[in-house]
Every structure is written in structure tokens, then in C-alpha cells.
What we know:
The complex is a heterodimer of chains A (337) and B (368).
Chain A: H1 2-6, H2 11-46, H3 62-72, H4 83-99, H5 118-139, H6 143-174, H7 179-184, H8 200-213, H9 225-228, H10 238-263, H11 279-300, H12 306-336
Helix pairs in contact in A: 2-3, 2-10, 2-11, 3-10, 4-5, 4-10, 5-6, 6-8, 6-12, 8-12, 10-11
Chain B: E1 9-13, E2 25-31, E3 34-41, H1 49-53, H2 58-66, H3 73-88, H4 94-123, H5 127-147, E4 156-157, E5 160-161, H6 169-191, H7 195-201, H8 209-214, H9 220-223, H10 231-234, H11 255-279, E6 299-307, E7 310-318, E8 326-330, H12 332-337, H13 340-344, H14 349-359, H15 363-367
Antiparallel strand pairs in B: 1-2, 2-3, 4-5, 6-7, 7-8
Helix pairs in contact in B: 2-3, 3-4, 4-5, 4-11, 4-14, 5-6, 6-11
Amino acid sequence: MSSLLSSPLTWGDALVIFLWGVVLMLVVLGFVTYAIFFERKVIGWMQFRIGPNRVGPFGLLQSVADILKLLIKEDTIPRKADRLLFILAPALAFVPSFTVLAVIPYTQKLYFADLNVGLLYYVALSGISTLAIVLGGWASNNKYALLGGMRSAAQMISYEVPLVISVTGVVMLSGTLNLRGIVDSQSGGWFWDWNFIPQIVGFAVFVIAAVSELNRTPFDLPEAESELVAGYHVEYSGFRFAFFMLTEYVYVYAIAGLTTTLFLGGWHAPAPFLDFVPGIIWFALKFMFIVFFLFWLRATMPRIRVDQLMGLGWKVLLPLSLANIFITAACIELFQR
Amino acid sequence: MGAIRTEELLLNVGPQHPSTHGVFRIIVKLDGEVITEAIPVMGYLHRGTEKLAENLNFTQIIPYTDRMDYVSAMTNNYVLCNAVEKMMGLEVPERAEFLRLIVMELQRVASHLVWWGTYLLDIGAMSPFLYAFKERETIVQLFNELCGARLTYNYMRVGGVKWDAPPGWLDKVREFVPYMEKKLVEYDRLVSGNEIFLARIKGVGRYDAETAISYGLSGANLRCTGIRWDLRRSEPYSLYDRFEFDIPVGTNGDCYDRYLIRLEEIRQSLRILKQALEQFPEGGETMGKVPRVIRPPAGEIYSSIESPRGEIGCHIVSKGKAEPYRLKFRRPSFVNLQILPKLLVGETMTNLITILGGIDIVVGEVDC
Lengths: 337, 368
């Protein structure tokens, strides 16, 4: 890929780049479709239910049917809504969620954009989605949506800070912001060479902040259905709502990929004698574990209160992640020099 | 630049809202997310039960009581029948009284399970709701076998019960009690210690005993302040004086105490059930000697019992006819709800749900 990107653009190259883009998009859309199915199944099993099992074999087409339903629904825009912003918000949420996927490396060979500042790029772009959520909440001209949008602004800003600071430790250890470089720096052969053990505090903070960034249980306050009905997307229906949902699940994909890359050693096998298994399998396994973990949380946790959420973000996670930087720096100074 | 103009946000919570447990509406004034004023609006489910009852005979009123507190229909049946029986001085056969007591206690377990599940759903935990409804399903099935209905039972009659227990029914209840005890321990361990859950409900919606009494609260809403008042003990009716059970009380008067009390009440109900099943009489009638037309003598009576939500009372004014001259129900949900506006001031939107859920209302009973 990198050779393609650095060589002069020809029609052939453009076609290849385009096709790869389509492939990635299909993979992500396939993931979203089956992640929703998987989530419903897993949570169903955890709750003594069966989960979707009617549409297609084993209910495999359930999500397809749901998405189709959303796409062919009537497109309603509230009369008092701010039309332009109302239409813009879902697109604004959806575009960055896909663009961040470009920097995630799947294996040594398979990656899309080899950016020097990959991590920074991810963090910068994913912040734009917050804007879209606030915009959607504001433009709906609905009080519940507004409350949801405001909550989400407060939440995402307060959790983006610890999220970024918690990965600083990883960056210090690997000495690069390039995500491929970060994975390479974890290649010791064994699983204890992965960042999640030396960076256990950073890892914990990262996971908590990431769940919060995803607006998932127990941090699903922006759309807390028992208080704010549906929060920022209460007025959205049809394909605009589908876009918001899609964004949410694409971010699940992105965060799972990012966690795997930063802390779980990317494509590396957990032990040297397991090296014969291709890297993509290891990546997929770790990735699926994170996704499962997120769904598991949803079946287990109650929702945290908004003031407690802020307290946790600013009073616990931020100092912890800052302390993590100091400890990491001290350790590097003491042991690695 | 002038100061930014701020204004209070007037928010309609309900009547269509996922956490008002039906068609209940609260108008809240919000300053940011803090509530400055809350006005409950009731009556969306008003069906005029008390007025309708004036043109019905007492057997015909029983189905209406089912529809008041539809989560706990058996206790509602009982309060009406009990009032009429007291008025007419009727004897209820022991077997019938035992059956009544067993279904009432099963109902209390079912009702508290519904509360437990929906309360956690309000707080944002999804799974306990389904666990609670799974266990409640067993009870509902038992009721279904007993009287052919899952929700509105119309089971009791003045002077007894409509149907005797079908063969094997009591054994099923005997199996259910230890099963539920085991499950309760599991659910208690699953939820009660959860840090997020505790942080959400501890110290929320606090009031003291004096306030509770002056608002006329009853049930767990009263007992959470430390007052040991349960009509099953304080003014025993039915056969409750024959059984051993404890009345759990709280100390802090917050949502957490109310939660613990309701869980403990499930345990105590199971204890009563166990004893009742042991002492259950072998044979006997299920209907006492009741005149063909039920005509209570002229006069008034107020009789109250402990429903899962508190003191449910029935006030009958009779002129010696087959229909009551005036019928009034004291509905615990309605009375307990009156403290809500006081509790909500200064709380956040999130706590609104926690407090409202903690009071445990059934809108069918609030509006009647």
C-alpha cells in the first residue's frame, strides 16, 4: 500500500486504491451487521433468552432486515428542526468514524495508511463525531435531544483527555506515534511483551475512557433511554438514525482495533511457538475479545450518573493517567538507559 | 458584551416516557440538569372505578379491583372481600383463607420481583429485568393454573375463593419456594453490591420518619425510615398471626434502604409461604356460607391490608343494598406519590428516575 501511495498516481493505481477502499468498507459494514447480531445473541444468552433466530438461518439475516427496514422508512424531519444541521449531523458523525479506520494496521503487510502521526490522526478525527452528536441534539429542537447532546459534549470532552494521556505511556515506550511502529515495538515473542502489562494503568484508563467515548454501558448517558428517552437521536428515524447507529458500531470496530494495536500486541502471537498461525488470525481474535468485552459490559452494568461520570473522568482517570506518564518516564530513565 | 441570558427549561416527563411506568406525567422545571420544581400530573389512566362500583354488586366489583394495581391483583381482591366479610360478619373457611394467604404472598414476591427488575432497568442495568420476569413467570403460571388468568385473576369471592387448588398445585408451590430462595441469593449477589448501583441509590431521595408519617406513606416507603409498621403484624388480618416472620426496616430512609427492604420482604414472604404450606389443611370447603345476594347491612366500614406497595384500604358505605352506596379505595401508590414533588427539588434529572422508581408506583392504582 505504501508504495502505491508514494508512487505517482496512475489510473491503474487509482483503481487499486479504490478497490481496497471498497474492500475495507465492506469488511467494516459486514462487521457492523454481524456485531449487532452477535451483541443481540450474546446478551440474549446472558439473559436466558434466545435472541434473534427467525430471519434467515439462525437469524443471521436479522440485522440485514433491520437495516433494510431503516433504509426504506419514511424520512421525517421535525418541522421546527434546523433542517440543514439536522441533515448534516448524521453525515458528520459517520464520515470521521470511517476515516479513522485508515490508520489501523491489521498485519505487518496489511495496512492502509502508514501515517507517522497515526495515533494523533485517530484522536483528532474521532473528536469530530462529538460535534456531530451535539449538532444533532441541538438541531432536533427537542429538549431531550438537547440534554442528550449536552451530556455527550461534556462526557466526550472529559474522557478524551484521559484517553489521550493514557496512551502517552505507550508512545513513550515505543517512541513513535505510528501505529505500525507501536505494534513492532511489542514484538518480544511472548504476551508479556505486549503493552498491556507494563502499561497496566494506562490500559485500564484507556479501556474505561474508550467505553465512555463509545457511549456504551455503563457510560451510555447521552442516550440513556430510561431518562432521556433516546437522547440526541430521539428525533431521528429511518436512514439518518441508521447512520448514527452505524457510526456507533464503526467506532466499536475502531476502538477494538486500536486497543489491539496499542496494548495487545496487534498481530503478534502470545507465545513464540504459536507463530505459525497467521498474524491476521491473532489480530482478529484479540479484536473479537475486545468487542465481546464491550457487549458483556452492556449485559452486566447499570448506568453511572452524570455527575459521577464527570467526577470519575476528572478526579480519577486524569490523575491516574498523568501519574502513569511520570511512572513510565521514571522507569524508562532507570531501567532502559 | 452582556451577560449570557439563561432560562429554565420546562420539560415534560411523560405521559409517554419509558421510565414513568405507564401513563404518568411530571412537569419539571430544569436549571441545567437540576430540578427546581416538579409537578406530577395524574389521571391519564383514570377509569372511575369507584363511581362504576356504585352500580355494581360486590361480586362484580372484584374484577375492577384487579385492574387497579395490576401488578398485585390478589391483594386488591382481598381488601374488598375482607371489608365486605367484616361488614356482614361472614366466616371464611380455613382452607379458603390459607389459599388466599398463599396467593397473596406469592403475589407479593411477584410484585417485588417486577419492581426489582424495572428499578434496575431504570438505573440502566438490563439483565436483572429479564431475570426477574423469568422468576415471576413461574408465579404467573401458578396463578394461571389456579384461576385461569395471568394478570387479572378475579380469584377471591366474598366468603372464600372461587376455585380450589388443582391437584398437584400445592406441590408446585412447595417446589417453587426453595428454588426462589436460592435464586434470590444469586440475584442479591449479582446486583446489591455493584459499585455503580450503590453510588446511584445510596443517600438518594432521603426523608425522615416524621416526614414519612406526615405524608401518610406506607409500605417500604415508610419502613425505610425505621418505623416498624406492617399491617400484617400491627393489625393482623387473615392468618398472619399464625406465622413467624420479620418486618425489615431501614435506618436512612433513602432509596438504598427501600431496595434492601423490598428484597428482604421477598425473603420473608417465602418464609411465610413455607409455614403456610406446612400448615395447609387437608380438606375443607373453599366457600363459606354466603347469602345468594350479598347485601351488607347499612353502615360504614374501613378495612385495610398490607399490599406490596403499602396500606391498601377499602371504605364501604352501605345502605343495605346489593350495591355499595359509596366505595373508596385508599391506594398506597397514590398516597406515596404525594411526597414526590418535595423529594425532587434540587435533584438532577437522573435522580428523578431513581426516586420515582424507588417509590414504586403502579399507575393503574394511582389513577384508579
